[in-house]
Design brief:
mainly beta; Immunoglobulin-like; 4-stranded mixed β-sheet; 1 helix; 17 strands; 2% helix
């Protein structure tokens, strides 16, 4: 993002003529029809500035402008040189993360070990990875059974924090929240996914090994 009149870059043409004469006095222009009027150049200094209140990297991440330098103070009799300048728009954390779905249903084996993950809730965030800064949380109630942690892609990993018992409780319904680390309008920043974790019972079978009966748990 760029603010209006922010300096983008400065270009400078080298002229071997005496700078105290018109022969060595260079003037800079941007030929018409470039970048839809997003940038302008100082006629004397060669400083390129933005003309708009913001530039959206997600819409377009790079612009190429042609700069014309002309000595003799820009008069028609002056010599002309041109160069191309690539302007890359750097990313800012200006997009709010949200879950790809409003509702998730996850099947969790009863015998899943504590601290193992039960699933991943994917996010949409148009910012670059270094500007994706989600904060995940589970409101009180089921927060002691499940927890959240970010993946390497900044999605939400759900982790089991307590052993499950199908006969005691086989269904958990809870919400997972995501917020951004940087300040946005509180009314827009929060995004919620409703999540149901269905516990599937572990199976038990009986087999005979020689003359001894064994109970095998899977």
């Amino acid at each position: 993002m760029e603010r209006t009149r922010d300096t983008v870059v400065q270009v400078k043409a080298i002229d071997a003529d005496d700078p105290n004469t018109d022969n060595g006095q260079v003037r800079y222009t941007l030929p018409n029809g470039q970048t839809s009027g997003l940038f302008e150049i100082n006629y004397e200094t060669g400083v390129i500035t933005s003309k708009v209140s913001s530039l959206d990297r997600e819409t377009k991440s790079q612009y190429v402008v042609v700069v014309r330098a002309q000595d003799m103070k820009g008069r028609e009799s002056g010599c002309i040189a041109t160069t191309s300048v690539a302007i890359t728009i750097t990313d800012a954390n200006d997009n709010i993360a949200s879950f790809t779905k409003r509702k998730y249903e996850i099947s969790v084996p009863e015998n899943l070990k504590v601290n193992e993950k039960i699933g991943v809730l994917e996010l949409i965030d148009l910012d670059e990875d270094e500007n994706k800064q989600p904060i995940f949380s589970i409101p009180s109630g089921t927060g002691n059974v499940f927890s959240t942690e970010p993946s390497k892609d900044n999605d939400c990993i759900l982790v089991l924090k307590q052993a499950l018992d199908y006969e005691t409780q086989n269904n958990y319904t809870f919400t997972v929240r995501v917020e951004e680390r940087l300040e946005f309008d509180p009314a827009e920043n929060l995004n919620v996914a409703n999540t149901t974790a269905q516990v599937s019972p572990s199976s038990t079978s009986i087999s005979r090994a020689g003359s001894k009966w064994e109970v095998l748990h899977f």
